[in-house]
Structures are given as structure tokens and as C-alpha cells.
Amino acid sequence: MSQPTKTHSPTIGVFDSGFGGLTVLRSLLPLIPGAHYIYLGDTARLPYGSKSHETIARYAVSSAKFLHEQGAELLVIACNTATAMALPEIQQSLPIPVIGVVQPGAHAALATGKHLDPSQDRVPHLRDGLIVAKVGEAPPSNAAHHVLVLATSATVQSHAYTHALNALGLEASEKACPLLVPLVEEGWTNHPVTDEVLKIYLTEALTSAPAAQTLLLGCTHYPLLEPAIRRTLAAIGHPLTIIDSADATARATAALVAQHFPSLDTTRKPTYIFYATDSIEKFQHLGSSFLGQPVAEVNLIDLGG
Ligand code: DGL
């Protein structure tokens, strides 16, 4: 008689500079229910988006190592800034698979471009849920599709999104929006001041990139501003298709989990544990709006400066 296959519930670490990465965890839960999740929000050292490459890499690597020490068998860097600035450093410092949000976000933009123009239906090569170009092969020919990326100053300075989008044959423009994270942190997601700030940023960005068709939200906080962004785009007469990388990252992570943990127990309900490096109350309060459900118990940890 054949033995039943032994199932495994992998432990997935999810890291962000704050609670914005909970939008990625929110997308992961229905796709990979049979996992145990450890989420770390490095809230004491947030924002990462205005800091230097060295500082971001140091913070991100120490946070990633903490999650590995807690038992993470696979790590999702849910922070755009940490992915853009330090993905190679994080990958080199851990012996487990690590995935970021930039490549999946670029892939989502490519899929949107095909939707806007179905004649552009070449499929990129995927490995570990990431886009891989074959040496000597020309990128897909949908260069007419122009993606405008909104992100933190550090992410824009890295040009990680432009590189990832260009590698897929997409045109890209980037706009740093440093005031948006503080406005979301303040809870001003539906506020006239935020609408005014968005109007200035989007008008400037679209003056430089009038051909943009897709708006990629390249920061964990921006999905919470989507209604305000939509409203502002309508007001300035420039509607765009809006995408974010949370869902695309969750799908790429599911592919990576299927590859590394083929005996995943899909009947199990997800379990999770939250860690933050600053105010537990603020994490619980703001985190709930990012996760879409109450964030009950949060553990305070100290990762130093
Ligand atoms: N998590 C960051 C990102 O996605 C935004 C917040 C910060 O600047 O730390 O870029």
C-alpha cells in the first residue's frame, strides 16, 4: 500500500520598512494558504526611501537575517526601496530563496501592455517567478508601451524599475514622490492636501512623459492612495491604467513556493506572526488598513540603529 505523501508548511518571511508590505501579505494569504508567515516591519528605521544605498542595505540585510533566524525558509522583500537598492546584498547574505517586488511589478506592467495592445503577446522567459532574458535575444517588441513609475526617491535613484521595464522592451519614466509616504502614515489617504500634492506630482510626471499609458505604483504605501490617484488623473484629464506589484509578487512567490516546496499542505489555514521595531499600537492601527483585517498581536523587537 502506498504511503500518503508527507506535506510541509513552509515558513515564509515577509519584510518591509513598515506596514505597507502588508498589502503583499494580503495578496499572499489566498494564494499560499498552507504557509506560516513571519512579517517584519522595520518601523523604527522607516522611511528607507530617503536614505542612502549603504544605510538601506545595512537595514535590509539585518532585517532579512532576523527573519531567517526566526525560521523563514523563503523571503519576500515586500519593500520597493529595499528591493531596488539591496536585493543582491540580501540574496548573498541568506542561504534561502529571496524574491523582491520590482521584477514582478515590471511583469505586471508587461501583461497590462498586452491587454492594452493584444498584438504584443510575446511571453518573457520566467524562472523562479522572475523574468529571465536569454543571452543574445532581443527583448519583446512592445516598446510603444510606456510605463510611468511613482516611487520613493531612493527607488527612483536606483533606476531598478527602468532597468526591469526596459529589459522587457517597455519604455519607462520614473517620478519620485517623497511626500506621499508621510501623508499615508498620517492617514490622509482621502484629504484635499493629498489630492493637491498628487496633482502637482502627476502633472509634472505627465508633462515629462505625456505618452505614458500605465501607472505603476512602485511603493508599498501607494495602493492606499489609488482612489485619490484615480480622482486626480481624471481631474487633470489623463486617465491611466493603474497597477501595483503586490498581486504580481504574490503570484511569483507562489511559483517559487511550488518549486521549492512541492508537498505544500494546501488544506491548512495560514498562520502568522508580526514583528515591528517601533510602536506596536501604530502598527496595529495602520497595519489593519494595509492587511484588510485586524492585526491582533505584534511583537516589538530591537534591531539596533
Ligand atoms: N516600503 C517603502 C517602499 O515600498 C516605502 C516606505 C519607506 O520609504 O520606507 O518603497
Question: Your description of this structure?
Answer:
The chain has 305 residues and is an alpha/beta fold. The chain has two domains: 11-100 and 248-300, 3-Layer(aba) Sandwich (Rossmann fold); 103-245, Rossmann fold (3-Layer(aba) Sandwich), CATH 3.40.50. Helix content is 43%, strand content 18%. It is built from eleven helices and twelve strands. The protein has helices at residues 22-31, 53-69, 80-93, 102-116, 153-158, 160-167, 180-185, 192-208, 226-235, 246-260, 280-291; strands at 11-16, 36-41, 74-77, 98-99, 125-127, 130-132, 146-151, 171-176, 214-218, 241-244, 271-276, 298-300. The strands form three sheets. A six-stranded parallel sheet has the order 4-3-1-2-11-12, sandwiched between helices. It has a four-stranded parallel sheet with strand order 8-7-9-10, sandwiched between helices. The chain has a two-stranded antiparallel ribbon with strand order 5-6. A hairpin with a 2-residue loop joins strand 5 (125-127) and strand 6 (130-132). Helix 4 crosses helix 6 (160-167). The longest helix is centred in the first third of the chain and has 17 residues, at 53-69. The chain is globular. Residues 120-143 have low confidence and may be disordered. Bound molecules: D-glutamic acid. D-glutamic acid is lined by residues 16-18, 20, 46-49, 79-81, 152, 155, 181, 219-221.
